[in-house]
């Protein structure tokens, strides 16, 4: 796990050094720079040593000098690929470096290489003979990759702040990106906070022709739901057996490491499943598990985590997050966040990673299961929402929302009033907007008020529309699965985990996003994922032989932080006296006052605004 950077065009050795040093937290163990000043090509690398610690130095160059690579990530099928390449006559220098496998693989298979990989990656490979620079990002975008072409210079890096270290790159905030930030709570790829700086989306390659600086961006993979038509006899048993085999194989691949490995354990079924298989595969060696608890009971899952840890006899480590600890952590988090993102669970995730890295260098997590198996509460609302929209005339929607707004505001985790109000605010809009409006900090009407201008929903929600319309299945569950897996997972969940883990120089691996497992799950029909009001139906059936019933069937809490109560009580201070371009601070002030008087729950917006104001204060 590492940080990569590079540029082609204007610049010097000092520029690549500054870009690379900005990534030190991503790779504290080693660093390297390769350059060809005559051609104006510079590549930099920071390394967190996980595999082949002694021989994996980067940038890595082939013996003939043709190919040069900088790579961030892990390739879990590198041993199989190495055998295939050796059979083709390739000779390896390192003992078991996955980086060298990528170099030889690109030589053998060219730009089709990413299709053969099972893992997570952001990489850049220079072909000095063909004069091309090839960039690629893994299918789900687990590893970040920013790039920009300005002033005859192409620059890229694992982090936006590193790209900005190059003197040819200027940063100008994008109004559309700001609106997307408040619409989603994150800035979806390929957008970034700034004009002319982009994120390469997951599942895409980018090639730069160095002779004329032409840039080609091409999709090599897409998440497509292709449910089978033929249902086997006893599908729960057949698919359950297959799922257990697939998950165990995925966990086994991700336990391979030359440094200690542990597991994030929240006490939910996803992390508990990973713990179950990791314990089995590490039998006799012991397993470290890690969790974060809260003093606020409705957010706290630590009792369930302890229960699972005792069940599998792991060495369990738990840390408590209080508002006092949050206040001490937030300055460090925000100083390294790189780009604003409004997922408040970044805070406990950071603390979890900080405590975990004291014991291990790699951790396995349960990310991806909620998205693949329909694990979120909005899946339960779909049928009722469709019925509501059919029978309730739209002019009455506002009156109903007003009446529901009179309900007592609770800042507990996933309280009934929160769910009802969130659901209703999306139902005055077409179905393709439901998920993003349910999850987002602001509704379209609130975006108009905050920015004091009309909200062009087709532009602001273009990514959500694309996910919805691009789904090949004509049912609400599959379309919602598509939204969560292609958009929310990539641009929120995985970004949060990457940033929180890399701030602490910890590698986090996601067994549920193993490509073989994903290819199996996307062929299971939706009504075996969400069935008779039960989320994750087929996954729970598969895990019945492994997990205690009270863990399998307990209500989902989610991994958040009690920011609503903190803002209401003034424990997190928020002000709007410093202007932020394009934003009506008078409207913001009214929303702060309404929240503190417990009239409206604006927790998500206030957190997003608070995060953004920090960026403006330090970068604006």
User: What is the correct CATH architecture of the largest domain?
Assistant: 4-Layer Sandwich
How far apart are the termini? 31 Å
CATH fold node name of the largest domain = Glutamine Phosphoribosylpyrophosphate, subunit 1, domain 1
The helix content is 40-55%
CATH homologous superfamily of the largest domain? Answer: Aminohydrolase, N-terminal nucleophile (Ntn) domain
Class by alpha and beta content: alpha+beta
Mean pLDDT: 91
CATH level-1 class of the largest domain: Alpha Beta
Could you write a compact summary of the structure shown?
By secondary structure, this protein is of the alpha+beta class.
Question: What characteristics describe this protein?
Answer:
Glutamine Phosphoribosylpyrophosphate, subunit 1, domain 1; 25 helices; 3 domains; six-stranded antiparallel sheet; Rossmann fold; alpha+beta; 17 strands; 620 residues
